[in-house]
Specification:
The complex is a heterodimer. Chain A is an alpha+beta fold. Chain A has two domains: 94 residues, Probable tRNA modification gtpase trme, domain 1 (Gyrase A, domain 2), CATH 3.30.1360; 67 residues, Alpha-Beta Plaits. Chain A has three helices and eleven strands. By secondary structure, chain B is mainly beta. Chain B has a single domain, classed as Folate-binding fold, CATH 3.30.2270. Chain B contains two helices and six strands; from the N terminus they run βββαβββα. Chain B has a four-stranded antiparallel sheet. In chain B, strands 1-2 form a two-stranded antiparallel ribbon. Chain B is globular. In chain B, 24% of the residues are buried. The chains are: A alpha+beta, B mainly beta. At the A-B interface, strand 9 of A face strand 2 of B. The structure holds zinc ion. Zinc ion binds next to loops of chain B.
Chain lengths: 183, 87
């Protein structure tokens, strides 16, 4: 068999900067959806802490970092990021490897929230959606995960198959916001 | 319209799928007659005023909710997880 080269979901499609907002495709590494069995929440949380030094997040929150952390991902679900799950977790939770299933982009800039507000119904004001807050929502009608990782930085994830649509939609929103600001 | 998801907080109506009156949670018991099943499957009230509906937080957390709202004033009064309402 020939040498196979892994291709990132956006593979150079995403511009690096639009109207003062920086865009960066992020390789999150190993992604595992963790779904605790009924009544096993505390045991799973303990195993996560013992095995990986990570805490199970509250609803709508993230623990650790996007390089190594746990992101709330829905009712009784969280996404383990950047860590291969240890043996101890599978006793308490169903685990699904989703490493290649998501496209992730970091969006950074003063107008990032303004552009995202054109695409998602989530209230992105800092008083409501602060650093470390995360939401499952829709972004331009796509199922998405959106996390505020810094004052003016967001991590946006959509299914890998929607990479090109996301590039298009984000571009349109960012260009629109930039044009309006320049007037 | 915004619905107060017990898990996610107040969220836009776009994120939800509407699934009709919450009567769907009251499944007829064993031996219930055809009338009870007819009502359960097919017959729905169309109230002017307070009503309880099932909503699915489809684009959000994925929870099923029972939302109490007023069809006359459009006020959304409360929302609880369907798994708790059905207990
Ligand atoms: Zn929700």
């Amino acid at each position: 068999m020939g040498e196979l080269t892994a291709q990132s979901p956006m593979d150079g499609m995403m511009p690096t900067r639009i109207g003062g907002v920086a865009l960066r495709e992020v390789d999150l590494g190993a992604l595992t959806l963790v779904m605790p069995y009924r009544g096993a929440d505390d045991a799973l949380s303990g195993a996560l802490e013992a095995g990986h030094g990570l805490r199970w997040p509250d609803a709508g929150r993230m623990t650790g970092t996007t390089e190594r952390g746990v992101m709330w991902f829905g009712r009784t679900q969280a996404l383990l990021i950047g860590v291969e799950p240890g043996e101890g977790l599978s006793v308490h939770a169903a685990l699904v490897d989703q490493s290649d299933a998501w496209a992730a982009v970091e969006i950074e800039g003063d107008r990032a929230a303004e552009a995202l507000a054109r695409l998602t119904p989530v209230d992105l004001r800092t008083g409501v959606f602060g650093v470390g807050h995360t939401a499952r929502t829709e972004v331009a009608h796509m199922a998405a995960s959106l996390t505020r990782t810094g004052e003016a930085t967001f991590l946006l994830m959509v299914f890998r198959a929607f990479s090109r649509t996301l590039v298009h939609e984000l571009g349109t929103a960012l260009e629109g916001v930039a044009v309006r600001a320049a007037r | 319209m915004r619905l107060p998801c017990p898990i996610c907080g107040e969220r836009d109506r776009r994120e939800f799928y509407y699934a009709g009156h919450a009567v769907a949670l009251e499944r007829p018991g064993e031996g219930a007659g055809a009338k009870a099943w007819d009502d359960y499957v097919h017959n729905r009230e169309n109230p002017c005023g307070e009503t309880r509906d099932l909503w699915f937080h489809e684009s959000g957390c994925g929870a099923w909710l029972v939302v109490t709202r007023d069809t006359a004033s459009h006020a959304v009064l409360s929302a609880v997880l369907a798994e708790e309402a059905a207990r």
